[in-house]
Amino acid sequence: MARIDYYSCDPFRAWNRLEGRPRKAEFEEVLAATVHDPLWFLTRQWQFGEMQGEDTGSAIFSKVLMSVSGITRMKNAGGVVREFSNEIPLEIQVESIPLDMSAGDRADAAFMLAKSLDNKAAELAVAGYNSKDMKARLKGLYPFDAPETVAKDDSHEDILSGTHEMANETGTRFKKSMHDRYFDGQKAYNKISTQKAQAIQDITGGNPAHTTFVIQAIDDFQAWYEKTYQVTKAFPDNAWVPERLEYAFDLAFPGNGTKREVLSAEEYAGGHLDWYSFDVNLKSVKPIPGNVTPEEALQRSASLVSVIPVEATFAGAPNSRWWQFEDGRIDLGNLHAGTTDIARLVFSEYALLYSNDWQLIPLSVPVGSVSEIRGIIVTDVFGEQSLVESANQGLSDTWSSWGMFNLSTLKDQPDKSAPADTRMFLAPALPKAMESDPVEEVRMVRDEMTNMVWAVEVTLPDGAGGTMDASRVARQYNGLLAGLESVEKPMVIPDESAMFRYVLGNTVPENWIPFVPVHQPGSNRSIRLQRASMPRLFNNEFSKVRPQSGILRVGLQGDDKQLQPYFVNEEEVPRAGIHLKGTHQRGRWMNGTILGWYGYKKQTGRGEGSSGLYYDRLEHIRNKS
Fold first, then answer.
1. Cα–Cα distance measured from residue 202 to residue 115, given in angstroms and rounded to the nearest whole number
2. What are the beta bridge partners of residue 434?
3. Residue 246 and residue 109 share a domain
4. Alpha-carbon distance 621 to 474, whole Å?
5. How far apart, in Å, are the Cα atoms of 492 and each of 489, 539, 615?
6. pLDDT at residue 490 in the model
7. What is the residue-wise DSSP string for 337-400?
8. Looking at residue 3, what is its pLDDT?
């Protein structure tokens, strides 16, 4: 596609596309490519321009000068600088959110411990071993917690907290069944991992003949538990920033000088982690300061690679030889593009006209490294050498100098003329991961009528390994509280002659958590969103409605007491709202190990919402007659 500049104001430019116009509407005769006499071959060569000689040769050899720097340091938001390890994918080191084990997982762990003891006793032919007696002993050592029960004469706080658990019918039934029949596998693991000698003494019941097989069985159980539930102490922190509802972290690598260079991912919303999530940090104060240590300098290397270039091909590309057919499964000629579809026009033009002009030089790049091609020397069949440099030298960050895999730069002040970084970062991330259905789900919507933001809890974990509808749980909770009300409410006898009724206010479901605008400290204009709470009236006492999702319980204790307020940046919730969800993810790393983790993800919402909350309302009473 040719660009014609009229030297007018920048962005007003004219684009013209030159296309051939055929003389006939039918192409059957031309596409047949029939062969005639030798004179026809000569005229065909002349028609394709093959009679015009060019002083050029085909590339036959190339040398590439490449520098590679491996990632050496890492720092999550609010965490400390630590050494970077490629043994675990970057997603786990960044996204992994601690999640309490459900009752279902604790029951699975208990089953595996009992199974390990039975199998090891059978393998070693332990005399006097009784599986039923062993399970009874384990049930007494590590009992399953009984579900909460409340009565009207309990304290106000006990009723409110106990009713929350009772509203979760699935989790309550599961815990009751496990309490009566089985033991808690998590309690057993905690005892084994912290006080192993005492755990062996308890499980054997003081029988020295059982010590050997019990030690082997609990070692197998401990290894299974840590592998299954990803128990690790190497990465104690995560990069989740509650105020911004996204992840933020930094990576450092040895640059060309004596200082460390830093890649910053300030707005990673979860999902797929790749090069476009990072920017080169050029700020005066870097999150990972310091000079390159001798150990880090070993991760920096330069190499001269000699390779034979090959023609770049892709499925459906026009073949360079006239008499060979292309892949018939792909019809690039059927690619419909309008006059404004610039990206599609550029793609089709490259595929149909210039695809044979490109050559491919394969290079191996280590995972978790920043690579730079300093230059390529290409030797043709005539022995002539040409130096090839990057077409995009990163002179600016304007749209016209955009380059694939280029890294943007971060500076103290926004600078559109700041050069882009032409190096390529190969992130140590999974190419693909399996993802579960949402375990936690929250939708944050703007309500212009009430001038606030609502965080609507949609899905909550049920404690038995599944999920539950948050709105249904809220209705169930209110119904249980109504049955436990011990203070009789006064009966209101309406005046039948009244035409209007004054309503002081209404309420919203308990899974709707308000966020109200407040001023930023030291500013009269900038605002942020603070988590508030709706009042709950029970037995003539007011209490605060707290969220149940871990996404929103920042600064709250288990008894719903607030240690510190929770603020969200106002710009993080646009007019369309946001959709937050927590999911289990699973993937296979390059060493073959299967890993899993639990993390959050932020997506764009579906628009504004209305809670229906109102105050000081005068309602018209309709005449029933």
1. 18
2. 586
3. no
4. 30
5. 9, 18, 20
6. 75
7. --TT-HHHHHHHHIIIIIGGG-EE------SSEEEEEEEEEEEETTS-EEEE--S------SGG
8. 47
For residue 589, the enclosing domain spans 434-620
**Is there a contact between 156 and 541 (Cβ–Cβ < 8 Å)?**
yes
Paired tokens of 587 = 């993937």
| Residue 163 placed within a domain | no
Closest CA to 66 of 318, 307, 410, 308: 307
Cβ 247 vs Cβ 241: under 8 Å: yes
Q: How many CA atoms lie within 13 A of 551 on its CB side?
A: 31
DSSP β-ladder status, 260-268 and 567-569 = unpaired
Tokens of 555: 């600064």
386 within some domain: yes
The overall average pLDDT reported for the chain is 86
Of the candidates 222, 304, 232, 296, the one whose C-alpha atom is nearest the C-alpha of residue 258 is 296
Of the three residues 431, 465, 486, the one that is the final residue of a domain is 431
Q: Among 253, 245, 230, 250, which Cα is nearest to 80's? A: 250
Query: Based on the structure, what is the number of domains in the chain?
Result: 3
CB atoms within 10 A of CB 379: 17
218, 199 contact by CB (below 8 A): yes
Q: Are 368 and 84 in contact (CB under 8 A)?
A: yes
Q: Is 201 left (phi over 0), alpha (psi -120 to 50) or beta?
A: alpha
pLDDT at residue 503 tops 80: yes
Q: How far apart are CA 501 and CA 520, in angstroms?
A: 40
In this structure, the answer to whether residues 237 and 220 fall within a common structural domain is no
Residues 440 and 557 reside in one and the same domain: yes
| Same domain as 271, residue 123 | no
Task: Please choose, from the candidates 469, 455, 481, the residue with its C-alpha nearest in 3D space to the C-alpha of residue 554.
Answer: 455
Domain contains 453: yes
State whether the Cα torsion 532-538-542-543 is positive or negative: negative
Global pTM reads 0.82
**Last-in-domain residue among 409, 431, 453:** 431
Same-domain check for residues 76 and 193:
no
Burial label for 94, CB within 10 Å (0-12, 13-18, 19+), is buried
Does residue 56 form part of some domain? no
| CA–CA separation, 356 and 95 (whole Å) | 43
- Which of 27-31, 216-220, 357-361 is predicted with the least confidence, judged by mean pLDDT? 27-31
Same domain, 275 and 413: yes
Alpha-carbon torsion, ordered 107, 111, 116, 121, to 10 deg: 130
Which helix (H) or strand (E) element contains residue 334? Answer: none
Residue 501's pLDDT is 85
Give the pLDDT score at 14.
64
How far apart are alpha carbons 390 and 403 in whole angstroms? 10
**Separation CA 321–CA 420 (nearest Å):** 39
Quick one: 538 and 565 in the same domain?
A: yes
Query: What stretches of 270-334 adopt beta strand conformation (E)?
Result: 279-281, 300-307, 310-311
Q: Counting beta carbons within 10 angstroms of the beta carbon of residue 476, is it exposed (0 to 12), middle (13 to 18) or buried (19 or more)?
A: middle
- Whole-angstrom distance between the N-terminal and C-terminal Cα of the chain? 77
d(CA 196, CA 190): 9
- Residues above pLDDT 70, as percent of the chain: 91
- What is the chain's alpha carbon radius of gyration, rounded to the nearest angstrom? 34
Say yes or no: 579 and 597 in one domain.
yes
What one-letter code names the amino acid at 216?
Answer: Q
One-letter amino acid for residue 205 of the chain: G
